[in-house]
C-alpha cells in the first residue's frame, strides 16, 4: 500500500493537521510502511466473524437525565487561549 | 530509605521510625539530584508534596489513615491533577493546568498518598521508548544510553532509580509492561475497566487502562487496592467487586498451570532474553507449577490490527484539541480552518500526527470495511484464542519484550520497527485481559521482564503468582549502579 503526496495532503486536511510541504515525503513513506504492516491482516479470512468493538461484553450504562456537574465555566475558561464575556473567541467566521 | 519497598516504608511509618515529611524530603532530594540525568519527571510538585506529607503525618498521629497514608508516589503525566500542569508529554498541553483530578488521583489523595510529581511519557502515550515526548527522552537508569521503554518510561525510570517507590502508568498496547521490563521493575496492567479512566487523557478508549508500577508485586497489590473499583463517571468502568489483593499473595501455586504460547518464543525473540525467561519458567516448575505448551494462533495479527484500531480511536479522541478551548493555539490564525490546522500541526509531534492520519485514513469513506471492520474481526479472533487457552491453563507466560532496552535513537526514525517492540503485549490489550511484567534477570547487562497474563479480573492471581516468584528470587531487589 503506497500513499502519494496528494493522498497525504488529503488525509492531513481531513484530520485538520497542517503539514509542511517539506514533511510530505516523509509522511508518505512512513504512512505507507504502516499500511504495509496493517495489510498483514489480509492473510486471514474473516468472513462471517462478528467484529469485536470492545473487550468486555458490556452494554452502555444509562443514567437519569439530570445535571450532575456544577457550573465551572470561569474555571474552565481560565485555561482557554482567548475568551471574552464568557465566550470562546475564534477568528471571524461570518463576514 | 529510598531503596525500600512501599510495604517496608508503610511499616516504618506505622512504627514511627521516620515521618512522611522526612521520607518525602529524602526523595525530593534524590529527584533534584538525578532528574537532570534521567528526565523522568516533567513536573516536580515539591511544595504540595511536603504539605501532603505533613497532613499524612498528622493523620497517622491521630490514629487515622490507611497503610499507604504518607507514602509518596509519582503520577504519569497523563492523569489530570487539579492545579498542576498535565502535559501528556505534548506541546499541545504544555500550558494545560488541569481543572480537576482524575479518579485515580482522587483515590490516592483520599488514601493520604503523597504526589511527588508528574512523570515523562511518550507524547499522548504513543510510543515504546519515551522518545516522542515534547520534553525530551527519558534515560534508562540501568544504562544511560538505553531507552526506558514507553510510554510510561518516566514512571518506570523513576521507580527503578529509587526516586519514587511506586508510580502510576497507563497501558494501551504495552505501555506499563514493556517499560517495567526494560527498567527491571514490576508493573501491572489490570483488566480493561478495572481502574477508572476518568481524568486519564484518552488515547484509544477501548484499549486504555491505568495500572501500577513498583519494585515488587506486593507493592503493586497495595497500589492497585487503592486504584481499582467501579466509577460511575467512566462509562466503561467494570461493576465488579475488588478483592483484597494482599490476602492471596502467599497462596500456594502448586496447583498452577502455566501456558507457554509457542508464538511468544519464536523468531524475533532475542536468545539471551529467551534464556532468562526459560530460567524463570524453570523456577516456577521448582515451585510446583505445571507447564503446558499452548498456541495463540492469531497472535501475529495483533500488531496489524492494533495499528488500525488504536489510530482510529486516537484520531477521534484527539479531535478535541482544536486550539479553541484549552491547550496550544497557533499565533495569528488567518481563519478558523487555519486556527485548527496550524494549532494541531504545531501542537502535535510527528508520531501523534502519523497515528491521527492513519486513523483518519482507516475511517474515511470507502476504507472502513477494509481496515476498521477487518481489524475488529481480528480482535475477536485474538480474544477467542485467549478464551480457549484459559480453559486449559491458569496463566500464560512469555517475554514482555522481544529484546532488552534498545539504545536511544536506534528506532526513533523507523515507526514500524518501533511498533514491533510491543509484539508480545498488544494482544492482551485487544482482548482486555490483565497482564504483568516481573523482572527475571539480565541480558547484555540490561533487565529482562517476564510477562504473566491472566483471565479477566484475575489480578489477585497474577499478583500471587508474581509474588511467589519474588519470594524465591531477588531480581526485583536489584538497584542500578550509581543510584
How would you describe this structure to a colleague?
Chain A is mainly alpha-helical and 95 residues long. Chain A has helices at 5-14, 24-38, 73-77, and strands at 83-84, 87-88. In chain A, β1 and β2 form a beta hairpin. Chain B is α/β, with parallel strands linked by helices and 483 residues long. Chain B has a domain at 6-249: Alpha-Beta Complex (Amidase signature (AS) enzymes), CATH 3.90.1300. Chain B has 15 helices and 11 strands. Chain B has helices at residues 6-14, 20-38, 46-61, 103-110, 153-160, 177-183, 217-227, 271-286, 302-317, 336-347, 350-362, 368-389, 415-419, 426-431, 459-471, and strands spanning 41-44, 72-76, 114-119, 166-170, 186-189, 210-214, 257-261, 290-294, 395-399, 435-443, 446-454. In chain B, the strands form 2 sheets. Chain B has an 8-stranded mixed β-sheet, with helices on both faces. Chain B has a 3-stranded mixed β-sheet with strand order 1-3-2, with helices on both faces. At the A-B interface, α1 and α2 of A face α9, α10, α11, α12 and α13 of B.
Question: What is the top-level CATH class of the domain at 5-43 in chain A?
Answer: Mainly Alpha
N-to-C series of helices and strands of chain A: HHHEE
Helix/strand/pairing category of chain A? mainly alpha
CATH architecture of the domain at 5-43 in chain A: Orthogonal Bundle
Counted by DSSP, the helix tally of chain B is 15
**Any idea what the radius of gyration of chain A is?**
22 Å
- The strands making up the biggest β-sheet of chain B line up spatially as 4-6-5-10-11-9-7-8
Give the topology.
The complex is a heterodimer of chains A (95) and B (483).
Chain A: H1 5-14, H2 24-38, H3 73-77, E1 83-84, E2 87-88
Antiparallel strand pairs in A: 1-2
Chain B: H1 6-14, H2 20-38, E1 41-44, H3 46-61, E2 72-76, H4 103-110, E3 114-119, H5 153-160, E4 166-170, H6 177-183, E5 186-189, E6 210-214, H7 217-227, E7 257-261, H8 271-286, E8 290-294, H9 302-317, H10 336-347, H11 350-362, H12 368-389, E9 395-399, H13 415-419, H14 426-431, E10 435-443, E11 446-454, H15 459-471
Parallel strand pairs in B: 2-3, 7-8, 7-9
Antiparallel strand pairs in B: 1-3, 4-6, 5-6, 5-10, 9-11, 10-11
Helix pairs in contact in B: 2-3, 5-6, 7-15, 9-11, 9-12
